[in-house]
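Dig into my protein:

:::
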Amino acid sequence: MANKTTANFIGVSDDYSGTSGAWSITEARERRASATHGENWGVSGAFDVNFLVIAGGGGSGSATGATSEGENNVAVGGGGAGGYLNSFGSESSGGNTSGLAAKRCDPDTNFTVTVGAGGAVVTNGSNSVFSGTDANSSAFSLTAIGGGKGGGSAAAGNGGSGGGGGSNWLKQSTTATSVSPGTGTTNQGTDGAAVSGAIIPRDTSLCNSTTNKFWCDDGSTLAGGGGGGAGGAPSGSTGGAGLASSITGSSVTRAGGGGGTTANGAEGSNGTGQSAAGGGGHNTGSGQNGTVILRYPNTLTISFSASALTGSTATDGSDKVTTFTAGSGTVSWSYT
C-alpha cells in the first residue's frame, strides 16, 4: 500500500505538522471523528447527544399494622423522586445543580439504555442508565439512582431523592416511634422530610381505659414526611418539587416527591411533577417509572430493538428526540 506524503487528504487543508509516512490508526480515527473533516471518510463524524436520565421513583411507606380500633397507628412517608441527570441547554440537573455536559458519540457504535421502574410500596425505585464509550474513547455510565421508599412501619430509604420519614404508635401511647427520612444523592435529588405534628388524644384518661379509638388519636396531627424531589426539598408532609426540562421541545416538570399521609388518611400534597416520570409514590402507592430522553442532530437515525426498549422519536427543529419509557437494550445511530 502506498505511503502518504503528508498527513492529510485531497481537499483537506490542515495537516499533522507536516509529517510524512503511513497513516497511523490513531490519526485515522481522529480524522474520522473530526466534526469538520469527517466527511472526507464518507461519514459526517462524531456528534453531540444531550440527555435527560431519570430513575424510577420510590414507593410510599406502608400502613401495615394499623387497625380500625387504633391498636397500631402509622403515619406514612411519601416516596422520594428518582435521580435526575440533565445536559440540555442551561437547565439544572438534580438538586438544582449545574447541568452536565453532552456526550460526543460516534455513529455505528452501540450504547446501553436502561429505564428504571418505579418502586412498589416500601420499595426503592430502580436505576436508569445511559452508558457506552464516547468519541474520545472514554467509557461513561450516566446512572440515575432510584428514589428512596417512604417510611412508616419500616425505615425510609435513601436514593436519588430520599423517602419521607414515618411513625407508628400504639393506641394508648402519647409518643410515637419515628423513623428518619432518607437521604438524596448529590447532584441528583434532595433529602426526604421528617415526620411532623404530634399525638393529641382527645382524653388521655379515657384513651387508657377504653378501646374506643375516638378518645385516643382522632385529634392527632402526626403526619409522614414528604419525599424529596429532584428540584426542591420537601416541607412537612408536602413532597419536594420536581424540575422542568424542555429537552423534548416543550417544558415538562418531572421527578416530584410524593406527599406524606396521616394515620387518619389525610394526604399531604405531592410535589410538582410527581405524576410524571420519576415521581415518588404517595398514600401507600407505587412510584412512577423513570425515563431516558436523548436529543441529537436530525441528520441521524437511531436504531434499537422494540422488543427490548419502549421508545418513540419526534423531530424538534434541527434535532430529533427519542424518549424511552421502559426496558433495557442497546441503541446506535447512523447517518441518513
